[in-house]
Amino acid sequence: MIIDFLQQIFNGLVVGSIYTLIALGLTTIFGILGIAHFAHGSVAMFGGYLVFFLISALGIGLLPSFVLAMMCGALLGVVLERVAYYPVRNAPPINSFIIALGLTLIIEKANLLAFGVDQVIIPTPFGRVFSVGGVTMPELRIYVLLTAAVLVGGMTLLIQRTWIGKAVRAVAQNRPAAVLMGINVNSVSMFVFALSSALGVAAGVLIGALFAVAPGVSEGLVVKGFAVLILGGLGSIPGAIVGGMVLGVTEAFSAAFISSGYKDVISFLLMIAVLLVRPEGLMRGKAQ
Amino acid sequence: MWRVLAIAVLVAAAIIFPLIVTVNYFLHLAILALIFVMVAQGANIIQGYTGYVSIAQGAFMGIGAYSSALLSMRLGLPVWVSMVVAPIITAVAAVVAGYPSLRVKGHYFAIVTLAMNMVVFIVLVNWISLTKGEPGLPSIPSPEPINLGFVEFAFEKRRPYYYLTLTMLLAVMTIVTLIVRSRIGQVLQAIRQNEVFAEAAGIACWKYKLFAFVFSASLAGLAGALYAHYMGFINPTPFSADASLNAILAVILGGSGTLTGPLVGGALTVLLPEVLRVAEVYRLIAYGLILILAVIFLPRGLVPAIASLAARLRRSKPEGGAA
Fold first, then answer.
1. Which one of A121, A207, B108, B280 is least enclosed by Cβ atoms within 10 Å?
2. Is the torsion defined by CA of A40, A43, A49, A50 positive or negative?
């Protein structure tokens, strides 16, 4: 029983770390621009497909493909911000939401056109399985957890310790004041989109390696991302980390001990409950 | 005066339509468009007039469709009765869903309703003993025929069903117009403009918001029931969050917070993907592009844009004549 328990915690943390990556992108974009970037899931899936393509068709190694895909993701993010979101920056929020839906359609179908309809699993050389005190830990899952941890750590450092990170936090806290202090809000929002999309792509690659990339995965993914945001509090980075872990573990437990068909229902009900009892999220969003 | 005339012409055109257009496929699309206009009109009440974006219309459509189908199949109720009961069941579900979720605003409300839609969808897929899951419910009965002596309406045929849907839609439009013009409608728009202010003016906003949410859901439920008995087969697919997003798009495209906007927007969201079918592969990409361009260049929606264009033309014409 205790082994089962630990096993599910491990599984939950692995999946939760991917949710955190998705949610980090969503939460920074939301914090800066107030946009519910619904197309984020499709961007992530694009990354998964791209890495599969780079590996299988061009024969590039796993790590270089990963880095290359994240760079492409950053570029894609900048393009999305400039072409689609920038024109509606002063319109009511619902307009940017509709833009996001349009983008979702376009990216989703472009993925379909470019990479086909088949589900795709990114090949990895990590086939070993460790057993730590009875808990089964496949090598791949450990690497997924580590990669996510490194990326989340890197992102946190970038936001907390660098000049541009300080600019991002300033815009999130008080946009007009940040403008008055001479911060270029335009370049901050492009930077945020680049960073978030690169993280989203990374999440897509991890999903592709762990499960599979397929058409239709992205919608569920982005809603999970929003669920994490609500659990953690909109716009809060520590919130996204805690929220991702809570969601992942809840899902793993409900799949293992209640019903795998209804695991998403349980995680959404958890989200709704948190929203109603603690609308500010589990982690009260301090200064990012 | 002009408005009455325009409405008369529109209704007359809608009545004549199936007599002129005999291609079954077009009639089929027209029925789907009428049904979806009903959903869009519901979404307009909560989204356009009250200013709360609900991403759950698809789920309510599903609840209406499944309850009407199951009532007529499992309990053997007459289809007419189950079509009346289905929106009521949907309304009850909406009270349960809306009472807690309307306490939050803005993006939070949108995301909660989206999650609710996914919950309903997952239940429809997984509660196999009731809904038969993914394969769906086959052979849902059509409404019982009505015999007026000189003419019989057999609703398993397309044309009578078209008229049934049209009648329902006209009734819905009338009710919606009455509501929007009434004190309730005024309060809803006050909530959209400034909820704190409305509350300070002594209005119990939550009652009105709940009414708008439940009413919009019951319209979606009615539309779902009409859909189920028209298609004769339902599975969970058409009731996913995609349907809710389509309803939002319909409101935005047509013009939110206007009575005629959802007519145009609802019809467009059904017809546009079909028209674009010529370029099958690029269809949804084009659809996405149109959406983005519409929001960037027509932020208030088609109907207000056309109306202001017409107004400008009318104003400039006499001037042009004088010069």
1. B280
2. negative
Q: Determine the topology of domain A2-277 in CATH.
A: ABC transporter involved in vitamin B12 uptake, BtuC (1.10.3470)
How far is CA B317 from each of CA A19, A223, B307, B321, B322, rounded to the nearest angstrom? 59, 51, 15, 6, 9
**Which residues share a beta bridge with A138?**
A129
**B253-281 per-position pLDDT tens digit:** 888 888 989 999 999 888 888 887 766 66
Contact A262, A256 (CB under 8 A): no
Residue A211: closest CA among A140, A152, A146, A147: A140
Element (H or E) spanning A233, and its range?
none
Q: Nearest-CA distance from A127 to chain B in Å?
A: 33
Q: Are strands A129-132 and B146-147 parallel, antiparallel or unpaired?
A: unpaired
Strands B152-153 and B146-147: antiparallel
The domain segmentation of chain A, as residue ranges, is: 2-277
Residue B295 to residue A98, Cβ atoms within 8 A = yes
Gap from B291 CA to chain A (nearest CA, Å): 6
pLDDT of residue A286: 44
For residue A288, the model assigns a pLDDT of: 39
Cβ distance A262 to B296 less than 8 Å, yes or no, reads no
Crossing angle for the helix pair B24-43 and B2-20, nearest 10 degrees? 140
Separation of alpha carbons A281 and B16, rounded Å: 56
Quote the Cα angle for B55-B60-B61, to 5°.
Answer: 105
CA distance A21 to A155: 10
pLDDT tens digit string along A180-203? 999 999 999 999 999 999 999 999
Question: Using CB atoms, which residue from A98, A106, A227 is nearest to B285?
Answer: A106
Q: Which of helix, strand or coil describes residue B134?
A: coil
Inter-chain touch A109–B285, beta carbons under 8 Å: yes
